[in-house]
């Protein structure tokens, strides 16, 4: 504890050291962040203001929109501000908070996307029992479990990282406080911690991805017995969700495999 207290702040290397590139990144990421905020706020406003949208699918969509705003806000504002700052620093506890919120909302997004796949499975494959399966209480329980699961994941990741001692190296080779860049600064053997955080993230990502894959496989097989109109309606409700899942999980799996390879080999 005495060693860890020697570090009161960390310094980010950031995305680039070139002033011109930093200005370009600043404009680009600010635009992306504003689009994310406005788009998700419009979704939330639409869902809450229209009683016809008070259904399980839109309940989880509003959860997803809120998570997306919070997930982006965990890192983007600080990163954008740092792009036009000479001193890219963050306090020790600010780094703890950023890592916790980043993993909390990121994991919550994975769980909510998985629950949404189950909702689509129930709607398409069990249409007569859909209202019973996805009752209001069931939706609240599934959403609560998603948030609690994310809380547990984030707590483990953050605790494993910051229970280590940090000495004089304060420069994080990244643009926000993520687990592996911060672990590189610890003045202790991090082999076991690296393995644990990889296993924690990997099992959650892979497990949810397999559930999503199984849900869509069952949905696609069930559509063979439906009319072309029924197939069109079912696919239209799943298409946007499947697109989001693809863009979210493919980079996650790629990054997970790349980090695992870098650490193990």
From TrEMBL:
It is a multi-pass membrane protein. The keyword Membrane applies. SUPFAM superfamilies: Family A G protein-coupled receptor-like. The chain crosses the membrane at residues 23-45, 57-76, 96-118, 130-150, 202-223, 235-259. It is found in: Cell membrane; Membrane. Keywords: Cell membrane, G-protein coupled receptor, Membrane, Olfaction, Receptor, Sensory transduction, Transducer, Transmembrane, Transmembrane helix. One of its GO terms (cellular component) is plasma membrane. Its main location: membrane. Pfam families: 7tm_4. The keyword Cell cycle does not apply. It comes from the Eukaryota. Belongs to the G-protein coupled receptor 1 family. This is Olfactory receptor. It comes from Ailuropoda melanoleuca.
